[in-house]
Design goal:
It is found in: Membrane. With about 210 residues, this protein is mostly helical.
């Protein structure tokens, strides 16, 4: 769910934002509005879609309605954070032909070292820093913690079973350092940082063109 949310959400933004910037540049230079007014209105106007699109009503996650609600909240935060990341890339590289490529190149190490494909404890020391700025890491861990903390026991053969409880599953994936709430708050922090960098990048670019 996390990977699908990130890739499917980011790709359209990598294309749409650079296409808007030429028009924004012209209207900003004409003094029609302040740049922050456009940026704020764009962020606010897209909120309803960011809230509605990540909802999976038919997944059948189980373990109670509260688990379902918590997962949807995390998916909404992931969706918003990824859009913030796409804003940042698109404003730093405002070309329709290049921004999607740069964006996917950036997402791949986030995916690789974010705990999804490689256990965090097995990550080489010189790549550890990547996981701390990876929205995939915090989103994936939050989803895993919400789901597996609701699993009291796992029915399996004791000989071949590597984990008997949800907590043991999280320990095997090295996901016991923070709570799901902590991961969600870090996602929100990354979201704000990505969007702030995006605004500063486009603001500096337009000032240079004056």
């Amino acid at each position: 769910m996390v990977t699908n949310q990130i890739v499917v959400t980011a790709n359209p933004v990598f294309v749409s934002v650079p296409m808007e910037l030429a028009l924004i540049s012209r209207e900003y230079k004409a003094g029609l509005y302040h740049l922050f007014s456009w940026f704020l209105s764009k962020n606010v106007s897209e909120l309803p879609m960011q809230i509605l699109l990540p909802i999976y009503f038919l997944v059948g996650i189980g373990h109670g309605f509260d688990v379902f609600i918590y997962l949807q909240i995390v998916l909404i935060i992931i969706n918003s954070c990824v859009i913030g990341l796409a804003y940042m890339v698109s404003c730093l590289v405002p070309r329709v032909d290049i921004a999607p490529l740069i964006g996917m190149v950036l997402i791949m190490p986030f995916m690789l070292f974010g705990g999804l494909l490689i256990n965090s404890d097995d990550c080489p020391d010189y790549f550890v820093w990547i996981q701390y700025i990876s929205p995939i890491k915090y989103g994936y861990e939050a989803v895993m913690k919400i789901f597996w903390n609701a699993v009291d026991s796992i029915s399996c053969n004791t000989t071949n079973c590597t984990a008997r409880t949800g907590q043991e599953v999280l320990e095997s994936y090295s996901m016991t350092s923070r709570s799901a709430l902590g991961d969600s708050l870090l996602l929100l922090l990354l979201n704000v940082a990505f969007r702030a960098i995006a605004f500063i990048a486009i603001w500096m670019r337009l000032r240079q063109k004056k």
